[in-house]
Amino acid sequence: MDSAEFRVKGKEMVDYICDYLDGLGSRRVTPNVEPGYLRRLLPGEAPQQPEEWDSIMRDVDDKIMPGVTHWQHPRFNAYFPSGNSFPSILGDMLSDAIGCIGFSWAASPACSELENIVMDWFGRAIGLPDEFLSSGKNSKGGGAIEASASDCILVSMLAARAQVIRYLKEDQPDAEDSVFLPKLVAYCSREAHSCVEKAAMICMVKLRVLDPDDKCSLRGATLRKAMEEDEAEGLVPFFVSCTLGSTGSCSFDNLVEVGPVCRSFPCVWMHVDGAYGGNAFICPELRPLMAGIHFADSFNTNPNKWLLVSFDCSCLWVRDRIRLTSALVVDPLYLQHDHSDEAIDYRHWGIQLSRRFRSLKLWFVIRRYGIAGLQAYIRNHIRLAKAFEELVRKDDRFEVHNDVRLGLVCFRLKGTDRLNQDLLASINGSGKLHMIPSLVRGKYIIRYCVVAEHASDADIDHAWEVIQKHATELLEPSVE
Ligand code: PLP
Predict the structure, then answer these.
(1) How far apart are CA 70 and CA 29, in angstroms?
(2) Residues lining ligand 1, judged by CB closer than 6 Å?
(3) Phi, psi at residue 143, to the nearest 5°?
(4) Which domains occur in the chain, in start order?
(5) 20 to 30 A Cα–Cα from 179, which one of 2, 217, 351, 417?
(6) How far is the CA of 306 from the centre of ligand 1 (A)?
(7) Three-class SS of residue 157?
(8) What does DSSP say about strands 443-449 and 408-413: parallel, antiparallel, or unpaired?
(9) In this chain, where does the modification N6-(pyridoxal phosphate)lysine occur (predicted)?
């Protein structure tokens, strides 16, 4: 394809994207296909000869689209939002075109510098303490864009592991690092995302999963008891992962209590995962939910979930960048450059060497919406979640199972787990609405998350109508 063809096909693609997004409402939310459907439709081998663009696009329509789950659909209310917006799509398009690989400042100065600046903009906009910003007064901290929250938590745990091993080696300087691994214990609440468990597996450390209180919040006393018990057994507490806005029920751990507990142990790293919820702190009135953040060593939030930035864009800030990078530095000659001392080399901030120009889309979104526009987006979602909660509460067949503080409502039919499983299966099976379940305090609940950028009262009303209709069919099978 040359640039002349790209001009034509690129413009057609923009039209295709607009038609797709504008017309989503008329599609099923979820596809009606069985595993292996696509293998039956596509050839087993790649084409030897180039194909016409239009023929490829016909296959997109006829073969790919029927198997797509439409995450941007107004009736997609599952998981958390998958951020998306036109400025972000354009930012990614430009990043793809520039196609630079920003592993060091020298590899593409603007790529590293924009990331550094935008991470400070965003960190300041969500009210992070100055210590986390590279331009903060006397700060040793800073931020980087990682691919996912799972990466943020893994690299934080790797840094914490390196830190505690350095500390333990003060008494046993000749010991191999691996000698300490069986002693190391990380902690999180049962509400924490499964990526904490995965990080502990990769780091080859123990993970102790603690019971939260009846509001699904991890409390200081529970953590202290567990850490003291482990210490008495000769183990070494080294990492605590807290959550602000848990996946299951959007609950918030009590950082004000957990922070001092972490600090009272000799070498414990406190991470705060706000993959979804952290974005909300762009609204000052929601910042009480992050009280105690000043105790954290690291914090992550994903604008690619709830701030209109398309995947991947997961933001990680650390209080002390050297403690992070010293765990991850390798420095072969071919990656070195003359400005290493004064410039930022993001390859030391994560697992990847090659890094895309991801800050462009975040920069485009922040500039095009402005902080005020992003606040309006978050506030609209929260308003709608509260409106949905009210609808649920008005129908005495149902009950609400979480404190609705952001865009997630956890609800269920009064009755058994089985009844609720059947309700969700029949709603999802209809293709009219898509939600997922979770367990809250041991009970199967249905999660309704406000997801679409332009979600409206009409969407909430429509969703509730679908849910009520399926509930009625289930509870009173003779009706209709
Ligand atoms: N943490 C929380 C609170 C989440 O909700 C999720 C995913 O929804 C994750 C971590 C994992 O996110 P990622 O898919 O970016 O690794």
Answers:
(1) 5
(2) 80, 148-150, 193, 195, 243, 246-247, 273, 275-276, 302, 314
(3) -135, 155
(4) 94-364 (3.40.640.10)
(5) 351
(6) 11
(7) helix
(8) antiparallel
(9) 305
